[in-house]
Specification:
With about 400 residues, this protein is α/β, with parallel strands linked by helices. The chain has helices at about 25-45, 65-80, 105-110, 275-285, 305, 310-320, 350-365, 365-390, and strands spanning about 5-10, 50-55, 85-90, 115, 125-130, 135-140, 165-170, 170-175, 185-190, 200-205, 210-215, 215-220, 235-245, 250-255, 260-265, 290-300, 325-335. α1 (about 25-45) runs parallel beside α2 (about 65-80) and α7 runs antiparallel to α8 (about 365-390). The chain binds manganese (II) ion (MN). Manganese (II) ion (MN) binds near residues 56 and 204.
Length: about 400
């Protein structure tokens, strides 16, 4: 009897480039590294046969040398322990331009310690035989040149060779819940996934999701540390897939500890606006924790009189030292204008921007110009998302 063990992870974002952590950036980078190391250790301790890394192993195209050499060491340890490593590139670790030249993952392919399916247009494949089971592992890397209307799978052939066929992808897939439904980026149509694919090892969505379509399991393990406040409540981890002779995969989500992250919302109103400073200060101090990354969203409409005493810089100065990182977002704290309620206050400039461009796209009759506008929006959208992760 055979039991193949496969570990599936994605979006590890090693060597992240956050601006906001300043003096603590190395500690924050360590959080990402530790969780990756835990996965490596899990593979070593459990004699895992195959490790699948489904894109965004690195947070950037040009990781520093220490994380590169750590990864090389881990891959070498895994290889000598009998674990085969397979990777595809994600939107963070695939080049966008000629200038960016090549993915940092290529180095590992050349070292011989890992397979990197670096093509963005053709599926690359490797066949393995483990015990009595033949395993076909295929992968396609993320393509920055595709626009929202392109389906990355529409012109590719996915081989059907093994008893169990795995396809590695780093894209959103229709029918799987997404965080940014407005994102204008290529999406794989679930209907383009061949029925003989048993397991789609996906990356890109940072929240864990599983969807079963006929005999195909589509799985996103999610990121292995929290990158944005949108992920504050997520549970992080990776999948262990155990495959026996009956070829029915048994899938387990293995949880990973992460640095605590929290987002709270404080409502400023008539009752507390007279002393905004101490109200916010008291509420925030209730959460005092030197390990915590905290974001405070201040909301409400305050009188001009009360607004004068609000001082964000002072709040940060008094409170910052009690947290790993404290952020105060006061864009929804607005001035009450008696008898002159203005509705546009409810929208952020970015929301205005999206609305404006979408309207232009809808109005545009010329197909060519429409496509150009869509591409521009898609490009700006990806840039904005990158910035919001920093
Ligand atoms: Mn990612």
């Amino acid at each position: 009897m055979t039991a193949i063990k496969i570990v599936h992870t994605a979006d590890n974002h090693l060597d992240p480039t956050f601006q906001k952590f300043k003096g603590k950036i190395n500690e924050r980078r360590r959080d990402f590294r530790i969780n990756f190391e835990r996965i490596v250790k899990f593979c070593l301790d459990n004699k895992v046969d195959v490790l699948l890394l489904c894109g965004d192993v690195f947070d950037r195209i040009n990781p520093r040398n220490p994380p590169r050499s750590s990864l090389m060491k881990w891959f070498r340890d895994l290889t000598s322990n009998g674990t085969k490593v397979f990777m595809i590139g994600g939107n963070h670790d695939m080049p966008r331009s000629v200038e960016e030249a090549e993915s940092p993952l290529l180095l590992f392919e050349r070292s011989g310690y890992a397979r990197f399916f670096g093509s963005t247009e053709e599926v690359e494949t490797e066949n393995l035989k483990i015990g009595d089971i033949s395993l076909t592992i295929s992968g396609l890397s993320f393509n920055h040149n595709y626009s929202a209307s392109d389906d990355p799978l529409s012109n590719v052939r996915v081989p059907e060779e093994g008893d169990f066929n795995i396809l590695m992808l780093h894209y959103s897939i229709t029918g799987v819940k997404q965080k940014y439904p407005y994102a204008l980026e290529p999406i794989v149509k679930a209907s383009e996934i061949p029925k003989y694919v048993n397991y789609v090892a996906a990356g890109h969505l940072h929240k864990q999701e599983i969807k079963v379509l006929g005999k195909t399991v589509i799985a996103y393990p999610g990121s292995t540390e929290k990158l944005t406040f949108d992920e504050a409540e997520d549970e992080k981890g990776f999948y262990l897939i155990e495959l026996e002779d009956n070829l029915v995969p048994k899938q387990t989500f293995i949880k990973l500890e992460t640095r605590p992250m929290q987002r709270i919302s404080l409502e400023v109103n008539g009752a507390n606006e007279k002393d905004i400073q101490s109200y916010v200060q008291n509420e925030v101090l209730k959460l005092k924790n030197e390990d915590l990354i905290l974001r405070v969203d201040l909301k409400g409409r305050v009188s001009f009189q009360a607004f004068q005493y609000y001082n964000k810089v002072e709040l940060l100065r008094n409170l910052e030292k009690y947290f790993f990182l404290l952020e105060i977002n006061d864009t929804d704290l607005t001035l009450k204008e008696e008898g002159n309620e203005v509705s546009y206050i409810d929208k952020t400039p970015i929301e205005f921007f999206y609305e404006f461009i979408r309207q232009k796209i809808n109005e545009e009759k010329d197909e060519e110009r429409k496509k150009t506008l869509e591409e521009a929006l898609s490009y700006l959208d990806s840039k904005l998302k990158e910035v919001s992760q920093q």
